[in-house]
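Hey, I'm writing a tutorial for new members on how sequence and structure tokens pair up, and I'd like a real worked example in the thread rather than a made-up one. If someone can provide the structure for the chain below, I'll link this post from the tutorial.
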Amino acid sequence: MKIVVANWKMNPQSIREAEGIFKNIRKKTLKLKKTKVIVCAPTIYINKLNSLCKKSIFVGAQDFFDQEKGSWTGKVSSNMLRNLGVDFTLLGHSEIRQLGETEEDLNQKIKLALKNKIKPIICIGENVRDDDGNYFSILEGQLLSALKGIGGIFSGKIIIAYEPVWAVGKASKKIIKSEDLLQITLFIKKILMDKYGAEKLKKIKILYGGSVNPINTEDLIQNGGVDGFLVGRDSLVSENFNKIVHIVENN
């Protein structure tokens, strides 16, 4: 099963607009057989969108706080999300890391997600791609820190999303080449195999995020070695997102 995740970030600005985008995506995903679609929406929309889910489309969260309960004004816990029916959540996104999230915070969140039977979509990615290959050690450090203390029994419950910061957003002028993505995918798999073994590795899905669009999707899914994508900007344009989903489905 392949996976395409929509990260709506702090969009759209009304529940009416959110419903409209979601319904347009849902309409085109009902006949999917090989692809799962997960829409990670703002928390205030989750309950309503969950009521609209059918077959291959799911609603996920974008993050939660690293404590289960207590005097934490404005925060949302993993248990609250579970009680809303959330099955997936993004964790470790670069935008959350930039706000001060530490590797220890992320590791705690992943453990809480698994405790509450929520599958974490764990984001990793380097800020810059240097000529010396230092980004390999950065990725290895991020991945091993995130999975510290998490045994192979959970291998089928975690999803890894490689999203290099340098390839994200409108300002990005760089698009990863499929051969470079394949190299990173194989590197991630090697780390995971060393930690969990070959059999457990088969259960872990690896996604790519970073300026994914209908133009580059086919090359990346055919030649990048990934199991799907984490889509940002184009996930809010249902026509573009649906094109990405169906390219994945047909490859």
